[in-house]
Amino acid sequence: MHLHLERDGKILLxxxxxxxxxxxxxxxxxxxxxxxxxxxxCLIREAREEAGLEIAAADVQLAHVVHVVDSPGGRPxxxxxxxxxxxxxxxxxxxxxxxxxxxxxxxxALPEPMVxxxxxxxxxxxxxxxxxxxxxx
Length: 137
Hints:
Helix content is 18%, strand content 33%. The protein is built from 2 helices and 9 strands; from the N terminus they run βββββαβββαβ.
């Protein structure tokens, strides 16, 4: 699950740790995997655990879906990106072994490098599309 958190024309992105098995030193959404829980419950838990943000389920809605293949012959994945209308707290670095820091980036000046499907999701959201396919031949 991925969190597209916007405020004042900027989006919250984290810089992944250099030892991360996925996309080291790339900017990415606040994200995580479900642990026997719903997608929204996962998103709320990850926001709290990774950045100290409190989000109510009623404030969460699906913003974008990316069906992605990261590499030729790779396993296809469906990435769900949610948006929170409201939240409490300011992002704090609570898992320094996974993320080097949280920053707000202008939507028209996203950082490099950035996880490809995250960049595609931001572009899709800005264009008003719900779905993107990426990496398919």
